[in-house]
Amino acid sequence: MADTPPSLSFEVAPGGALRGPLQVPGDKSISHRAVMLAALAEGETAISGFLEGADSLATLAAFRAMGVQAEGPEQGRLRVQGVGLHGLQAPADALDLGNSGTSMRLLCGLLAGQSFATTLIGDASLSRRPMGRVIEPLTQMGARIEATPEGRAPLRVLPAKQLSGIDYRMPVASAQVKSSLLLAGLYAQGETSVREPAVTRDHTERMLQAFGYPLRREGDRVCLSGGGRLHATALRIPADISSAAFFLVGASIAPGSDLTLTEVGLNPTRIGVINILRGMGADIAIERPRELGGEPVGDLRVRSAPLRGIAIPEDQVPLAIDEFPALCVAAACADGPTLVRGAAELRVKESDRIQVMADGLSTLGVDVEPQPDGMRIEGAGAAAQLDGGTVDAYGDHRIAMAFAMAALRATSPIVIRDCANVETSFPGFAAASAGVGLPITEQRGATDA
Ligand code: S3P
């Protein structure tokens, strides 16, 4: 198991408003895929807007360990010398993917097609997360992957004789599973086809097309055939809507806020958070909609507005799956109850996000009832304040950032423990927050679990 990061707590002063322009770091999902496809392409790919967070850097380090040359990243700029689909080399050691589920699940598929064996390890959280969801269909394709008896990391991906395409209907709506199978499909004989029970993020499909790889989409199904090639290209990665989400919520709940988040990725498979917040009464305008490297982007202007609780439509859940910690804070500051259903996946993210949010919100005086597949949050009221207090992020980056926003509506400071993993997706979060009106004091070496 990989080392745990040094402990870090946030102390966030109560009250305030969010104002100004802010560009949050590059999209995490797209950054992972950019490195993977650039490494497997023929030629040099220049990437800008790359997320220099621990998760995407873990993916980059994995490819460097497999012989891929890359220059950077420096201020989001990265140049990757592609080695072609068959040019990776056996790494000398296990690939340590830290906290990153996306790295581990996507790499499982990609590595299943290599002629060498690899060991994949991660931190305590990643080592608890279910990997059977990729191992099972990849095994059907002919992959040989060893895991713990519970289907968890460490994983050993052994060379397969030959992968064969399958027609797979995913039991869970997961972009990671879909992407893992598509990456294995690049190495498979015949056609690999994946069907999803609900729409999930389609960055892999878009990026494969950007690298010139033929791919077919038919309704809920995406298909590709092995044996093609990826051609290097230039990629500009938009700001991550999942990181912008904290500020969308913060500016909505803090009276007097007027914030513009620039160049945010607005892929229709990711904008559940905007749809849900608007359903709650949020004032979010999309300005300067445009396209950037095959992905829609825009600036998001958000002004504070009284929020009301809603029953979150289940079809929005996969489109906002990473935004529930932030949405729970919005619900806590709304008039009336908010109901989340059909979101059992939240229990197997970087933490059990249903339980961890319920525990923290209860500390802040909010009435929350966790359920197996969601929760009911009794909003304190659109003009009411939350209590301050000490909450635990359990090493989950998105929990930490969500509770930082809650301080905007608290009567006294909120201390958040175990925040070091904010670095996985949003390096510089405390400075970015301070720059728009939410000062966060970081305490290193505090008494984290
Ligand atoms: C991701 C897909 C989602 C998401 C994760 C990133 C991706 O996971 O929660 O943060 O980049 O494909 P699932 O596919 O497991 O829902």
Summary of the model, kept short:
The chain is an alpha+beta fold. The protein has 13 helices and 23 strands. Strand 21 (389-392), helix 11 (397-406) and strand 22 form a beta-alpha-beta unit.
Q: Secondary-structure blueprint of this entry?
A:
Blueprint: E1 8-12, E2 19-22, H1 28-40, E3 42-48, H2 54-65, E4 69-74, E5 77-83, E6 95-96, H3 101-112, E7 118-121, H4 132-140, E8 144-146, E9 155-158, E10 167-169, H5 175-185, E11 191-195, H6 203-210, E12 216-218, E13 221-225, E14 234-236, H7 241-253, E15 258-265, H8 272-279, E16 283-292, E17 295-303, H9 324-332, E18 337-340, H10 353-363, E19 367-371, E20 374-378, E21 389-392, H11 397-406, E22 414-417, H12 422-425, H13 429-435, E23 440-444
Parallel strand pairs: 2-15, 3-14, 6-7, 10-11, 21-22
Antiparallel strand pairs: 1-22, 1-23, 3-5, 4-5, 7-9, 8-9, 11-13, 12-13, 15-17, 16-17, 18-20, 19-20
Helix pairs in contact: 1-2, 1-6, 3-5, 4-5, 7-9, 7-11, 9-10, 9-11
The structure holds shikimate-3-phosphate.
Residues 29, 102, 174-176, 179, 201, 321-322, 345 line the site of shikimate-3-phosphate (S3P).
